[in-house]
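Kindly inspect this chain:
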Amino acid sequence: MFIDLNIPIPETFTRKPPTLKDWSQITRTILEAKNLGYRVVALNQIIDGKFSDSVLQAWSNFPEIDGVTVSWLSKQGIKPGIENYSSPKKFTVLKRISLKISDPSQNYSLTSNNATLNEYDIVAVIPDTEKAFSCACSGSFEAIDLISIDMTCRIPFTLKLKPVSQAIQKGYFFELSYSESIADSSIRKFWLSNSIALISATRAQNIVFTSAAKNYFDTRSPYDITNLFTLAGISASDSKQSLTESPRLCLIHSTNRRFTHKSVAIAECTLTPSEDMIAEGHQSKKVKLAK
């Protein structure tokens, strides 16, 4: 089951509730992802700094799409990442929030009992200082699932092994998007060097590949992405895992965080492979989860 956890929505949606017409470009991107073989996508709302419950207005007037289940409009109370998405015939849209963080001493309210954050299927942080990155990796931000780094410029800090290993142990995932390398040739050099650094620091563990596609023509098939990331030194099998199992485990991490309100601990859980995962040669195996 291929998953894309980052289709960004315009920042203007946060300042002014979107109309049905405003959603048309996003809808087209969603349908393109569906045609390319993805079964789950997450729409990503990026917030610079602090937030309030007014951020939720960005999700108003979302249109009905034939054959698409929308998590925040579903009456079934979907719990992401588990059996709800195992059918290869089902296509699901989730919502994600990503918070840019510079000074971790500010109160970002990234706690498991924050009602606003619990409205989102995925919570990510985008640290742009070494201190913020270290805090994200150490678990200081309780209610997060994903750590995202701006790959379009020189990273202002070193991706050290210790904090990265700490984040992996706590069940966090690192995002590596690809559309920047396709859309703008001027930043391709930064993207490639940053991708190599992240893959090296994580040893290709807990990496989630995403599109970050602002337009439908920036999306690519999962197999094209696998070929692209071989340039960054990651194997085809690890690339495939970063498009299937890793984002699925990230969704399970979100489920544990939102529905159990427990701090991170290591547990063993046996995943039952979905029908499409079996078709692709995946087997049941023990993995470490955060609960």
The longest strand covers residues 38-48. Residues 3-283 form a domain with the TIM Barrel fold (CATH 3.20.20.140). Residues 168 and 206 are 6 Å apart (CA to CA). The chain has one domain: 3-283.
